[in-house]
Amino acid sequence: MKNRVLKIFGLLFFIFILNILCCNVTKGEVFESGLPGSTGWAVDDLQMKTSANNKSKTIATVTKGDAFLILSESGDYWNIKYKNQVGYVEHNYCMINLPDVMPSIVYNISNASASIYKSSGYNLPNVTGKKLYETGKVMNNKIGREEYPCPVLYSTAKMIAVAQQSALKEGYCLKIYDSYRPRSTSKTVAQSLSRLYNSNSTVKNNINYSTGKSGTKYYWGQSWFLAQGLSSHNTGAAIDVTLCNNSTKQECIMPSAMHELSTKAIKYYSSSCAKIPTNYSKDMTTYAKKLDKYMTDAGMKTLASEWWHFQDQQGHSRISSKTKSQGCDFQIKGIASGVDNSKLDVNKDNKIDINDASEILSAYSKAASRNGKADLKYDVNGDGIVNIRDASYVLSYYSSKNF
């Protein structure tokens, strides 16, 4: 038992030292966790190429909505594993599973368990309390826990990562309630809200009008609370998010409940005023203002009508153009997140252990002494180079499976 404990601590210390040394070797990422091993989805059918070049040979077609494993990045391309084939796809037209790269964010995708949509406190018929997405929490082998899939465009994920880093520095944490939403789901919710609007005078009044500080009334309407056409959620470019205390994970006080579809949730006093802090609604809280700053400073755009909604405008336009303004309408049916184990057994002894890490370090050292590059078969973390990070990657995997 004593030897086993010593071995554990020895491994952990070795990994710690390797990670410190690696800070001087490779450029840091905006994400908390590396890209390799993450799940991706194509927003439209994409050609998978033999290399990171659109002119290279097409070896397969990645069907939109199918989960694939991301191995590495090269320019505008991801090297992926899809249906036992390895090739390259343009990541500008792909979504990534956000928990794979930002595990510190809290995920509570309510539409994947029981929808919380309401308007003036009233349930939306056949929507509120219903499971609107096929896939709820699933085991995520990359982060080692059960978690909701949270698909967002790769460009959107980078902005969210920056916002989370800003929140963490001040003791807060993002809590995401929704991200990609199939277009048919958006249509279902919009139709349900319309039925409620037409049958309930309180709902209609609170969707149509807000009252400013001076008592002035401002007109809004249904389209401000649910898109009547293509939504940025349908392109993977938007999230619905709140703020929580990072230590307790208790949600901060906001102007309304999440997904309250009425003027109780507005961010600005009028739908037509400039989107600047001096025009905030009288009900915007300190925490709602903090959230707005974190997200907009990271490059995301906001809505006048929903304090929780933020979107990657360029990403939305890119996918809207790619899909001819139709967006995406597939359901997420699982994830592919995890380690491509076949690459870790570098010495081919059918085991992934310290010996594999040792062989990687040896190859790296020999190549470095000759001012050369080691064989890319030792690039097990998929970042395009061979160094001590690859040995650390093997040891991390080995320790997670054996202790």
Give the topology.
Elements (H helix, E strand, L loop, with lengths): L1 H21 L16 E4 L3 E4 L8 E5 L4 E8 L2 E6 L2 E6 L3 E4 H4 L4 E2 L10 E2 L2 E2 L14 E3 L4 E3 L3 E3 H16 L2 E7 L4 H17 L1 H8 E3 L5 E3 L18 E8 L40 H12 L3 E2 L6 E3 L1 H10 L31 H16 L18 H15 L1
Parallel strand pairs: 8-14
Antiparallel strand pairs: 1-4, 1-7, 2-3, 4-5, 5-6, 7-13, 9-10, 11-12, 14-17, 15-16, 17-19, 18-19
Keywords for this entry:
403 residues; alpha+beta; six-stranded antiparallel beta sheet; 19% strand; 9 helices; single chain; 2 domains; five-stranded mixed beta sheet; 19 strands; Muramoyl-pentapeptide Carboxypeptidase, domain 2; elongated
Q: Provide the number of structural domains.
A: 2
Strand order in the largest sheet: 6-5-4-1-7-13
Q: What average pLDDT do the residues reach?
A: 90
Percent of residues in helices comes to 25-40%
DSSP summary: helix tally: 9
Beta strand %:
15-25%
Measured between the Cα atoms of the first and last residue, the distance is: 12 Å
What's the story with the biggest beta sheet? 6 strands, antiparallel
The CATH architecture name of the largest domain reads 2-Layer Sandwich
Low confidence ranges: 22-28
- Listing every helix as H and every strand as E from the N terminus to the C terminus, the arrangement reads HEEEEEEEHEEEEEEHEHHEEEHEEHHH
Record field, number of beta strands: 19
Radius of gyration: 24 Å
